[in-house]
Design goal:
By secondary structure, the chain is of the alpha/beta class. It folds into 2 domains: about 140 residues, 3-Layer(aba) Sandwich (Rossmann fold); about 70 residues. Helices cover about 45% and strands about 10% of the residues. It contains 9 helices and 6 strands; from the N terminus they run E-H-H-H-H-H-E-H-E-H-E-H-E-E-H. It has a 6-stranded parallel sheet, with helices on both faces. Helix 3 packs across helix 4. About 45% of the residues are buried.
Length: about 220
């Protein structure tokens, strides 16, 4: 029985992956690293600490992890403030359906909490979420299940009663590892993500309705 829906944020609520890509492309270029789409697609859905830890290991970057993360977050907040992004088509309608159906709603994102709250404020949809969890608040980020399990705990719902909406390979793997159902949103702006682990794949948020969620 469906009791809760847990949303990823980047690429699901807001089309922010191009923003992330642009900032990371600039950061990689400044560090003298390959800033190709193929390289950056590897990190979609990861927390900033996990991403930079892998980058440091992969490319031998010597700058401290904390400095890289702070630099990246400041750049992204600045880019978000200047952007005119709105909620992805269908998101507000789906949130209204869930509210009317009295289904608990959570947000579990790999982004830092400060960026998550900035996005929710920009989109004007904070009121719909019963809990918000950043991947940086749990021991391990996606593709590990920690962030989704924490969201279920805060919602006081068993994992098997939760459905996750994700747009990344790392996210879908994390949702399934948490014992949850998962809808994969094939967002063209999120790169060529392998969503085969999802229980259902959609190409528009408008395809996700309360009956569809309840049927999983």
């Amino acid at each position: 029985m469906l009791e809760a829906v847990i949303f990823d944020m980047d690429g699901v609520l807001i089309d922010s992956e191009p923003l992330h890509f642009l900032v990371e492309q600039q950061a990689f270029a400044k560090l003298g690293l390959p800033a190709t789409k193929e390289e950056l697609d590897l990190y979609v859905g990861m927390t900033n600490p996990d991403m930079w830890a892998k980058v440091k290991e992969r490319h031998g970057v010597e700058l401290p992890l904390s400095e890289l993360i702070e630099w990246q977050v400041e750049m992204k907040l600045s880019a978000l403030k200047k952007s005119e992004e709105q909620a992805i088509d269908g998101v507000t309608g789906l949130l209204e359906q869930l509210k009317a159906g009295r289904i608990a709603v959570g947000l579990a994102s790999s982004s830092p909490k400060v960026f998550i709250m900035a996005v929710l404020e920009k989109l004007g949809i904070s009121e719909y979420f019963d809990c918000v969890v950043s991947g940086e608040e749990v021991p391990k980020g996606k593709p590990e299940p920690d962030v989704f399990l924490k969201a279920a705990e805060l919602l006081n719902k068993p994992p098997h009663s939760c459905v996750v909406i994700e747009d990344s390979r790392n996210g879908t793997r994390a949702a399934k590892a948490a014992g949850m159902k998962c809808i994969g949103f094939q967002n063209v702006n999120s790169g060529e993500q392998d969503l085969s682990a999802a229980d259902k794949i959609v190409h528009s948020i408008r395809e996700i309705t309360l009956p569809v969620l309840e049927a999983l």
